[in-house]
């Protein structure tokens, strides 16, 4: 299985080249085109790649997941996120998991295990609209962003502070805390906003545009 991120940073697409028997999980509705030899199946998440997902602090919830499986060599699928922006590849080697805002996960290989994570950041997405997903195992995951994706490195003597609306993903070993910051405004209330402080050793992926603009534009 091979992957290519194409079509630029603003209108990025993910092309997956597959051999017979290759299987990949994708965000429902993200398919643009596929070979006729690629079979699409949507289920509730029981078993399969990730098992049933659970919200971090609420009752068990079945989440629809789409799987693409190739029935012949040289098959392909092209995916695109719902909004303008970039796609980033995250390589997991089995030694450390990655947490992702669930709306940012576009696709993942079969060896990646998904589940929900404890609500560390308590930010808008994880406490209001979406859960935080935990990815484990060895394989590839692809996240989509509103705007470009920046990967930052956090070290023990250099913590990172991120406007929480721009936080996309982070490695599981990082310590996460939330605090008010008068230098930014709340996207909803116009007052002080919140930032997320990440400390320790690890990586962070941020999106360069604020997705709250999309919610405001829709009147939500």
From TrEMBL:
<dbReference type="Pfam" id="PF01987">
    <property type="entry name" value="AIM24"/>
</dbReference>
<dbReference type="InterPro" id="IPR036983">
    <property type="entry name" value="AIM24_sf"/>
</dbReference>
<protein>
    <recommendedName>
        <fullName>TIGR00266 family protein</fullName>
    </recommendedName>
</protein>
<dbReference type="InterPro" id="IPR016031">
    <property type="entry name" value="Trp_RNA-bd_attenuator-like_dom"/>
</dbReference>
<dbReference type="InterPro" id="IPR002838">
    <property type="entry name" value="AIM24"/>
</dbReference>
């Amino acid at each position: 299985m091979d992957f290519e991120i194409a079509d630029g940073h603003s209108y990025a697409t993910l092309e997956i080249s597959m051999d017979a028997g290759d299987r990949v999980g994708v965000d429902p509705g993200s398919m643009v085109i596929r070979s006729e030899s690629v079979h699409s199946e949507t289920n509730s998440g029981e078993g399969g790649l990730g098992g049933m997902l659970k919200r971090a602090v609420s009752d068990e919830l079945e989440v629809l997941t789409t799987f693409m499986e190739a029935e012949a060599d040289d098959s392909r699928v092209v995916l695109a996120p719902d909004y303008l922006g970039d796609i980033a590849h995250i390589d997991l080697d089995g030694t450390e998991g990655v947490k992702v805002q669930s709306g940012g996960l576009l696709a993942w290989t079969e060896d990646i295990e998904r589940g929900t994570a404890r609500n560390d950041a308590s930010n808008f997405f994880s406490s209001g609209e979406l859960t935080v997903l935990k990815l484990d195992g060895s394989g590839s995951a692809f996240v989509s962003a509103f705007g470009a994706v920046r990967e930052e490195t956090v070290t023990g003597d250099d913590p990172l502070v991120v406007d929480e609306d721009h936080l996309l993903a982070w490695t599981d070993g990082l310590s996460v805390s939330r605090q008010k910051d008068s230098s930014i405004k709340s996207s909803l209330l116009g007052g002080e906003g919140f930032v997320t402080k990440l400390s320790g050793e690890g990586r962070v992926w941020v999106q360069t545009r604020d997705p709250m603009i999309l919610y405001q534009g829709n009147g939500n």
